[in-house]
């Protein structure tokens, strides 16, 4: 058992040693969000399964707080309303659950952030396509593979191909983004 823990931890450590281009992608994502917020625009965030939980976690920390009290930032999660999700899934198919919400809520200049370990989720690709139709900026947090990174305007590609490591890296990337919106970071 101990050996398995070490193996898993070593995989994460190895991934974290290959972060130069990943950090550049995160910095660009922060720049995109900062610009949108400065123009009174919002971010919509979506993912499936564990990535849905990460989307909600990011929204919590942007609307609530990360470490310090600061004004809330306009971020909303497209996975949080079970009634809307099941209505759309029932009436239009699960592949439309995010695109339909983007169509309803997204405006030109807003940002769509999608998270996917596989980078292959059709419902997220459709959301990106819809967002682009509405002149939104799109960013995809993915692993090393997948069509989602190609579909989005900006890809933040976790340096791993192992789903658990990708999710851990996505959480770290989201926390790095939150850090840049802390009052001490904004003032400097």
Record the strand order, biggest sheet.
2-1-3-4-5
Shape: globular
The end-to-end distance, rounded to whole angstroms, is 46 Å
- What CATH architecture would you give? 3-Layer(aba) Sandwich
CATH fold annotation? Rossmann fold
What is the count of β-strands?
5
Name of the level-1 CATH class: Alpha Beta
The residue fraction in helices comes out at 55-70%
Structural class: alpha/beta
Instruction: List the total number of helices.
Output: 9
The averaged pLDDT comes out at 92
Number of domains: 1
Largest beta-sheet characterization: 5 strands, parallel
Helix-strand pattern: HHEHEHHEHEHEHH
Uncertain runs are: none
Report a brief summary of the structure:
By secondary structure, this protein is of the alpha/beta class. The chain has a single domain, classed as 3-Layer(aba) Sandwich (Rossmann fold). The protein is 56% helix and 12% strand.
List keywords for this structure.
five-stranded parallel beta sheet; alpha/beta; 56% helix; globular; 9 helices; 5 strands; Rossmann fold; 188 residues
């Amino acid at each position: 058992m101990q050996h398995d823990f070490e193996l898993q931890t070593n995989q994460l450590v190895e991934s974290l040693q290959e972060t130069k281009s990943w950090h550049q992608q995160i910095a660009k994502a922060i720049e995109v969000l900062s610009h949108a917020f400065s123009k009174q625009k919002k971010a919509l965030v979506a993912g499936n399964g564990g990535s849905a939980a990460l989307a909600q976690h990011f929204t919590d920390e942007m609307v609530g707080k990360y470490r310090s009290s600061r004004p809330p930032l306009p971020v909303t999660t497209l996975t949080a309303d079970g009634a809307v999700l099941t209505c759309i899934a029932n009436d239009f198919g699960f592949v439309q659950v995010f695109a339909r919400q983007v169509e309803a809520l997204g405006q030109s200049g807003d940002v769509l952030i999608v998270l996917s370990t596989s980078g292959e989720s059709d419902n997220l690709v459709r959301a990106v396509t819809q967002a682009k139709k509405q002149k939104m900026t799109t960013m995809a947090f993915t692993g090393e593979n997948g069509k989602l990174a190609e579909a989005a305007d900006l890809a933040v590609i976790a340096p791993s191909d192992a789903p658990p490591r990708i999710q851990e890296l996505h959480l770290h990337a989201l926390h790095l983004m939150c850090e840049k919106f802390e009052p001490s970071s904004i003032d400097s």
